[in-house]
Amino acid sequence: MVSDKPRIVKVLNVRDESKTVRSLIFEDDICSKARPGQFVMVWIPGVDEIPMSISMTKANGLAGFTVRKVGEASSALFDMEAGSLLGVRGPYGRHFTPIIGDVMIVGAGTGLAPLMPLSEILTQNLSSIHMIIGGKTIDEFVFVDRARAILSKTKSEIIITTEDGSYGTKGLATDAMEPILKEGHIDKIYTCGPELMIKKVLEIAQVFSVPIQASLERIMKCGIGICGSCCIGRYRVCKDGPVFDSPKLEEIIGELGLFKRDHSGRATII
Length: 270
Ligand SMILES: Cc1cc2nc3c(=O)[nH]c(=O)nc-3n(C[C@H](O)[C@H](O)[C@H](O)COP(=O)(O)OP(=O)(O)OC[C@H]3O[C@@H](n4cnc5c(N)ncnc54)[C@H](O)[C@@H]3O)c2cc1C
Ligand code: FES
Prior knowledge:
The strands form four sheets. This protein has a seven-stranded mixed beta sheet, with helices on both faces. Strands 1-2-5-4-3-6 form a six-stranded antiparallel β-barrel. The protein has a two-stranded antiparallel ribbon with strand order 13-14. Helix 2 (115-124) packs parallel to helix 3 (144-151). The protein has helices spanning 72-78, 115-124, 144-151, 177-182, 195-207, 237-240, 246-251; strands spanning 7-16, 21-27, 39-44, 48-57, 62-68, 85-92, 102-108, 128-135, 157-162, 169-170, 188-192, 212-215, 231-232, 235-236, 243-245, 259-261, 267-269. By secondary structure, the chain is α/β, with parallel strands linked by helices. A hairpin with a 5-residue loop joins strand 16 (259-261) and strand 17. The chain folds into two domains: 7-92, Elongation Factor Tu (Ef-tu), domain 3, CATH 2.40.30.10; 102-269, 3-Layer(aba) Sandwich (Rossmann fold).
């Protein structure tokens, strides 16, 4: 379901996920029916409008997104309290396609936001999930308890990795992929997080001939395929993504983790 009509919604609840990450819950029937991986354009009055992955949907019309405080717009969102008003339009974009089978999920940071509703559907499908959550250090982790609760419904596992060894296994999230893939039973890989991680996930998946779906981020202005600010290769992340399948990712692998467009549209080295 898509709705381009902007709606004003009230923040009903703000949940601290970590020192720099918060989830904002609001009521919007259209957003509550979003598919996993879709995003919403969030208008912060007087500040900016930025895309946010929908991190929570409920049958009772509630929806939520999860913001990490990094720049002006995300900090303004982070500082909102219950009762604040904001604008939403969408949900937009291509979503993850949940399968029934044995899947691997690789995520990091707020990249886990769209992977949470995906995991809920996968476990409803009785799929087994091998979820690898990576981070630089222990303070960065969000959604671990929520992931454990979701995955407890099927025969699944969570593997935590940190670059400094402060939580879980020392190393990169992608280091944990190979031992599982070598067993030969993974049907599909889903991933979202830093682009260099996504690139590595794609390269490893290619070696084992496992299809992947990855959700990408680019600066977005219109969110509906008009302005071109979100282009990667010949694709617009807002319209052709944000979730891309292996063939399209293989086409744009040369840009992944290397180039981004800045707010003026100039391609810059990441
Ligand atoms: C489809 C899609 C879904 C998204 N979903 C989410 C989401 O669920 N949660 C979320 O927090 N953000 C999400 N984003 C990113 C979000 O839209 C903003 O780009 C981000 O919040 C920064 O906006 P800003 O205006 O505050 O900072 P900017 O002014 O754009 O950036 C300020 C500084 O922070 C850096 N920066 C920008 N983004 C990040 C980042 N993610 N991590 C570290 N540094 C960064 C910039 O390079 C710059 O130096 C999503 C983006 C897309 C395209
Ligand atoms: S944000 Fe305008 S084309 Fe994608």
